[in-house]
Amino acid sequence: MLRIKWPSQILLVLALIFSGFANATPSDAKVAGFAGADYWQVVKKGDTGRTQDQGAEAGQLINVKGEEWRYWRNQWITPAGAYAIGGTLALLAIFYLLVGQKKLDHPRTGNLIERWKRLDRANHWTVAVLFIILAVSGLSILYGKFFLRTALGDSLWANYIMLCKLAHNYLGPLFVIGLLFMIVRWIKHNFFNRTDLMWFLKGGGIIGKAHPSAGYMNGGEKVWFWLLTIVGIIVCASGLVLDFQNFGQVRETMQIANLLHAAGSLILIAASFGHIYIGTIGTEGALEGMKTGYVDETWAKQHHDLWYEEVKGKSSND
User: Fold this and answer.
1) 38 in any annotated domain
2) CATH number, domain containing residue 207
3) What is the pLDDT of residues 286-310, one digit of tens each?
4) Which runs of consecutive H residues, i.e. helices, occur in the chain?
5) Is 35 among the domain residues?
6) Which residues cross the membrane (predicted)?
């Protein structure tokens, strides 16, 4: 005959089980089936609940807008940026092979004219170096996982991408300061006029034999300046929103800032290749001005004849 040694313990367990069933409610039954379609329908709506955290989005289980951000970033901005950068490089390579460097029409005179002050050159090269570092680090963050991770291996890739993030986050604000200083200092030279219209109609000297007239800045340089100003400010502002996350930005704000930052940066990087090409191998003597601050009279008369006449006029009056 089976004998129960601990009847009091068994009775206690049975009492707890029956009391649980007695206190159950229909709402508890619904919780038991939480993984059903109704549950996920509520989640997709982004409904909020209750939590101890007092943050702006503490009660939101899922940020539904995150899927929209992922779609725009991965399906549109990332591939479009790759096409823009690759296409620009390809066009410049073809142009150089077909046309070559734009040479000076006449021999150099040996007489130099000051074009850029030391402060302007220091500002330009500071912004340029920061732009290159930010471009390389940003492109690595956006595209590196597709090819660099396999090439470097997980360990080296982890260290490299961490370095890119640190450089991007800490050097970004310095770029903002340098760019704003450049805009304020150079804006007076970059307002469009009728001379620029003729410069565009002649393709900056590609169409026709005579080089079009230009003042201190030609039409192409003014386009680059305003692109750098308008798109650059958008990139800088969105970057600061992403960099300083302690001002109460919600996730949707950060996602919009991320999309604007990525799209604007890719536009500037693609456009910068044209600026770099013209200022280096594309035009004879162009780089000398930003390196030393001075250009030869022959270069000045050919590329910025109106500015040259203005400078020579001031010199003769002195």
Assistant:
1) no
2) 1.20.950.20
3) 999 999 999 999 999 999 999 999 9
4) 7-23, 26-32, 37-44, 65-72, 78-99, 118-152, 154-186, 194-201, 219-243, 251-279, 286-292, 297-303, 305-317
5) no
6) 80-99, 125-147, 167-187, 223-244, 256-278
